[in-house]
Structures are given as C-alpha cells and as structure tokens.
Amino acid sequence: MFNFNYSLMQNNNRLTYMERLNERLNAIESVLKKIDPVESLLERIALLEKNIYTTKQVFTFQEACMYIGVSESLLYKLTSGKEIPHYKPRGKMIYFAKEELDEWLMQNYEPTVDEAVRMANEASATQPFFKQRRYGKRKKA
Asked: For residue 71, which of 86, 79, 97, 51 has the smallest C-alpha distance?
C-alpha cells in the first residue's frame, strides 16, 4: 500500500512537473511574441536616425562620428590636427557642418582605370613628348 501511494505521488509530481513545464513554455512564447514588435521598433528607430542625417545641417560630435563612420578617437585626432573643418562656438563643444563634412569626405578623388587612360590620352594629344628639351640629360652625338 505504501508503494502504491508513493507511485501515485510520483505520477502526480510528474503531471505537475509537466504542467509547470507547459506553463513556462507558454510564458516564453508570449515573451517571444512581444519581442517581434520590438524588432520592428528598432528598424523604425534606425530609419528615423537615417532621416535625421538627411535633414540636419549641423551635427554634434557623436552625430558626426556616426555620419562619417569613424571612431571618436579618430575624429578627436582629426579635429586637434585641424584636418577636418569644425566649429567650437564656446570653446569646448565641437560641431560640424554637414556640407563641409561631405566636401571633406569627397576629397582626394581616385579615378577609375578607364578615366585615367582617357586623361592620359588627352594629355598626350595636347602635349606630345617628342621634340621636348631634356634638361640635365646628355646630348647624344
């Protein structure tokens, strides 16, 4: 009789364990359903941040870092070396004009191979290399 009651208690414990497990799984599923809207909200936030960069004319230091895609330490280095245009209205806070950042990003243009060949052909057509004086070279006798 003792063994029988013990086995019934084990079955009841198993059922309650399974019921508790089912409740936990349901709770996890409900939390996961709540996460889906959070992901869509994160996407909307990213879109809004992107739109901020298109409408704003003046950036703060952190916004400029994100806009040009560099670390804070590199941007500090560029500003301290006066390599990038920036403004300090009160001497401490650093601000950047969007147009000037765009110009700075677009400097040092590298032409494609086709453009380089075309430019070389145009230069050779307008300035032929033969019959030019060669200063510092010996004349052949």
From this structure: 79
Residues contacting residue 95 through CB under 8 Å, at least 6 positions apart: 58, 59, 60, 61, 86, 87, 88, 89
User: 133: which 2 tokens?
Assistant: 């004086």
Sign of the torsion formed by the C-alpha atoms of 86, 90, 93 and 98: negative
Residues 60, 62: Cα–Cα separation, whole Å: 6
Closest CA to 10 of 18, 25, 23: 18
Q: What is the pTM of this model?
A: 0.51
Question: Three-state SS for 59?
Answer: strand
pLDDT in tens, 106-140: 998 888 999 888 888 888 777 766 666 666 666 66
Helix (H, G, I), strand (E, B) or coil at 58: strand
Asked whether 85 and 96 are in contact (CB, 8 A), the reply is yes
